[in-house]
Design goal:
Length: about 100
């Protein structure tokens, strides 16, 4: 049974890493949006596509642009922090520990 616990613990660590990486992508993409010339870079295009996957549903569900500033990346980062890293990852670690 400990093997499944180790597997769940490893999946929790992997999920935590993926959420941290996504938060970093969202932050870098938001900072790059302040510089119009940076959008010509292919790396910026990849970051825009990745962040668009998670921010577009939020943009469709809620009006997130106020005064020319898009708050969708901030809202997604807050949700990732509280729901993902504050609830889901610790719950998986606790489940792994109890197995």
């Amino acid at each position: 049974m400990f093997v499944f616990g180790n597997l769940i613990g490893m999946l929790a660590n992997l999920l935590d890493f993926a959420m941290q990486a996504l938060m970093l992508v969202l932050l870098v993409n938001a900072i790059l949006s302040w510089f119009p010339g940076a959008r010509d870079n292919p790396i910026a295009d990849v970051l825009e596509r990745i962040s668009g996957v998670v921010c577009d549903p939020v943009r469709r569900a809620f009006p997130t642009a106020f005064g020319g500033i898009d708050f969708a990346p901030l809202l997604v980062m807050i949700l990732l922090q509280f729901v993902g890293r504050g609830f889901l990852v610790p719950t998986l670690h606790d489940l792994a520990f109890r197995m």
